[in-house]
Design goal:
Blueprint: E1 16-23, H1 26-36, H2 40-43, H3 45-50, H4 60-74, E2 81-92, E3 101-113, E4 119-129, E5 134-145
Antiparallel strand pairs: 1-3, 2-5, 3-4, 4-5
Length: 150
């Protein structure tokens, strides 16, 4: 499927993709938290140990950004993506820790053509795993051009 630009018609319900790995460093956790999520449990190891997370963990928003990067690099940039219709679900199931190596499994949940435009909506579940278990689930709907789009 990935040899030429991928169009809306190339997706089908139940289709799966597995890709990538991203190793999260402690410095990345601190950098992101300082810039975008300055809460103590992302910035201070002692505060993190005392929190319900029981240790330093990445911001869920950082994990979402990593998921976006993995999906863009390995799937979306190979399609005729025309934007996005939104995120329906975002669940941070387990803490993501420095040293975790993240990989993604994408499952196509729905494919719906636009009634008037040469695009379609491809609802997909992004399931992110560390080396042991699932840590995040994001359900999002990219808009992908059809073959007859000019």
């Amino acid at each position: 499927m990935m040899d030429s630009p991928v169009h809306f018609e190339d997706f089908y319900v139940g289709q799966r993709f597995t890709f990538g790995h991203y190793e999260l460093t402690q410095e990345e956790v601190f950098e992101f938290a300082r810039e975008f999520d300055p809460q103590a449990h992302h910035l201070d190891e002692q505060a993190a140990d005392d929190s319900m997370l029981r240790g330093l963990s990445a911001s869920g928003w950082q994990v979402g950004a990593i998921a976006m990067r993995l999906c863009a690099e390995h799937l979306l940039n190979k399609t005729k993506a025309a934007g996005g219709a939104g995120v329906e679900e975002c669940r941070w199931l387990k803490p993501v820790r420095p040293g975790d190596i993240l990989r993604m499994e994408v499952e196509i949940l729905e494919v719906t053509p636009h009634p008037r435009r040469p695009v379609g909506f491809v609802k997909m579940a992004w399931n992110l795993f560390n080396q042991h278990e699932q840590v995040t689930r994001i359900v999002t709907t990219p808009v992908i051009a059809t073959r007859d789009a000019a």
